[in-house]
Write a structure and sequence with these properties.
Blueprint lengths: L1 E5 L10 H15 L3 E7 L6 E6 L2 E6 L3 H12 L3 E4 L3 H11 L3 E4 L26 H10 L4 H8 L4 H12 L7 H5 L1 H18 L2 E4 L2 H9 L7 E3 L21 E6 L8 H9 L6 E6 L5 H13 L6 E5 L6 H5 L4 E4 L9 H8 L4 E4 L3 H5 L6 E4 L4 H14 L6 H4 L5 H16 L1
Helix pairs in contact: 1-17, 2-3, 3-8, 4-5, 4-8, 6-8, 10-15
Length: 423
């Protein structure tokens, strides 16, 4: 069987968990000797460049349009396509060429016009996509957009969409283009999702929460396979580090951005009066908005010497960095589909304190290998942090490590799906 993996953007990027996941499964499939190739999307004007990655071909694709992409796929003639990005285009191409397409839902953006399945009240969204429900969220994500919402919601939907179509034909105008185009972007997301839902051969949902969201938005239940991600496991699980003089070292690994709930974590941590605890933050920002957020947090909590900012760490160095820490913390306020940081911490024998955000519930059994609290609740998080800091004793690492799915197991499950849809 010849497999085409359509990467989550740039194959070599480590910006998010989706990119890291795709590289992990490709590396494992190469190790197991499967026949595959990769399409990677890069920021360049046009064209397709063939490269070598380890023992396989990798094609870097610029802004070349769907026709050139379809010609490339036709030339490669895979038995199955696994799409991690550009999902609507890839599903359309697969249907045109009569090649089955498996799609993995890596984040809420597969459905959500605003991208995160986080509503305007900072709550995880449990509503089907519609103009009425989504407009406030889309405008909220645009600078000054929330102030325009009371007026923009009064514009008839069809007229608002026509405004967006007209603006899309003009050069980009700051504020005007995104605010004026919000209704059009909601419609395009609905059309894109319809293409994916109707045309995909199989949809992989890494957690129950995203599966339910996709069903709510019209996906046929027979197309869904619930399959949590796997990760490359550490070569060995170290002994749990000693807790000296009661000093608990909490840690977070991931992007420094709003939806990851770092502001909630730091507020909760700052409420604790225990001077004998530490919070280590490992990760960086990936764009200007995230950088502003990170800078604001560092400034706001600069006086708390218990908080240590480590910056970004390469994925293959994470296990080394977290080895001496005790308790992982993952507190997203949006629907997080998996939680690579949770799996990595568990693999290293660390318990995890996390919010009920979708992916966490698939990995953590409350009170066994970690703790679960409601998202966006400073008080509940502070109470649990204080609880852990006051009562936590030595921990048995295997309680965490034995619950992690290896990348090898995960790829074996993927191959079963590929075989099913290809025959």
């Amino acid at each position: 069987m010849f497999i085409l993996q359509v990467a989550s953007g740039d194959f070599f990027s480590t910006y998010g968990g989706g990119q890291v996941y795709v590289k992990n499964i490709v590396d494992e499939m190469i190790r197991q000797g499967y026949s595959l190739t990769v399409i990677s999307f890069v920021n360049q004007n046009s064209g397709i460049e063939k490269k070598q990655y380890k023992s396989i071909d990798l094609y870097e694709v610029g802004n070349c349009g769907i026709d050139k992409l379809q010609n490339l796929v036709k030339q490669l003639h895979p038995d199955v396509i696994h799409a991690h990005s550009h999902k609507a285009h890839v599903v359309t191409i697969g249907n045109n060429l009569h090649i089955p397409v498996i799609v993995t839902a890596h984040h809420g953006g597969i459905l959500c016009p605003a991208g995160t399945l986080l509503n305007s009240k900072d709550e995880i969204c449990h509503t089907a996509v519609s103009h009425e429900h989504c407009l406030s969220c889309c405008l909220r994500g645009i600078r000054s957009g929330r102030y325009w919402y009371p007026m923009m919601r009064l514009i008839p939907r069809n007229l608002y969409r026509k405004l967006g179509v007209g603006l899309s034909r003009l050069p980009f105008i700051p504020f005007v283009s995104p605010i004026g185009g919000a209704a059009w972007s909601i419609l395009r997301k609905q059309q894109e999702w319809e293409t994916i839902a109707e045309g995909c051969s199989r949809m992989i949902a890494p957690c129950n929460a995203i599966a339910e969201a996709m069903l709510r938005n019209g996906l046929d239940s027979h197309k869904i396979t619930l399959l949590p991600h796997g990760i490359p496991l550490p070569t060995s699980v170290p002994d749990f580090p000693p807790i000296i003089d009661g000093r608990i070292k909490f840690f977070y690994v991931g992007r420094i951005c709003y939806v990851k709930g770092l502001h909630i974590l730091l507020q909760a941590f700052s409420h604790l009066r225990n001077s004998n605890i530490e919070l280590h933050l490992i990760g960086g920002s990936g764009n200007k908005t995230e950088k502003r957020y990170e800078t604001a947090l560092k400034k706001r909590f600069a006086s708390d010497q218990r908080i240590v900012w480590h910056g970004k760490v390469a994925p293959d160095k994470v296990f080394d960095v977290i080895g001496s820490f005790h308790v992982a913390v993952s507190v997203p306020i949006y629907m997080e589909i998996f939680g690579l940081n949770i799996a990595e911490a568990l693999a290293m024998g660390k318990p995890v304190l996390a919010t009920r955000c979708g992916g966490a519930e698939m990995q953590i059994k409350n009170g066994v290998n970690g703790w679960l609290v409601e998202p966006n609740d400073v008080g509940a998080l502070a109470k649990k942090l204080d609880d852990i800091a006051s009562n936590f004793m030595n921990y048995e690492p295997m309680l965490s490590a034995q619950r992690v799915i290896s990348i090898s197991q995960h790829c074996n499950a993927l191959m079963q799906i590929y075989e099913e849809v290809a025959h």
